[in-house]
Amino acid sequence: MDALVNSFKDAETSPVKKLNDAVAFILPPDKIVPLETPDGFRISKLKQSQVENVRNSWQYKEIYDRYADLRCWIRYHISNFTTVCIETEDGRPVAWELQQEYGGIGMLYVEPEYRRANLGSVVTGTLAGKLVKDDQLVFAFVGENNETSINFYKKNGYVLMPFKPSFAFYNL
Q1: Residues 86, 78: Cα–Cα separation, whole Å
Q2: Cα separations (Å) of 121 from 60, 108, 126, 154, 158?
Q3: SS3 of 26, please?
Q4: What is the reported pTM?
């Protein structure tokens, strides 16, 4: 990635913008453990009406919006890839995760007041189960400095892979 960015005369004007380095995790199918959905919640898919919830929760929204329309990207993922949402009984989304275009899972989010209630593990386990049922590999890329997510995936049975992917945008 660095060689690609540096191949341009001026890294500042390069159409390739490196975002961050990551670590890769894979979830072996035998590590997928179905978890009970806590009382008062239901499992669903993300809906188009929830695009703003997903957008507003994503820590990289300002960076992404510099290069592309994040709302359009989220709508595309909700329409074309596997997603899982946990809602309250009255339909309020409180936790979600989605499969991204490269096949990995990501954008896991749990509303602050619902954290430590195991909803992150439930949503991730549910998404993993759906992907394995469709004969897909379950993996995640996590920013190498995101200790919270790294610890979460380890706790949920994911295995650290021996390579590091990088994320970048190409902007014409």
Answers
A1: 15
A2: 22, 10, 8, 11, 12
A3: strand
A4: 0.84
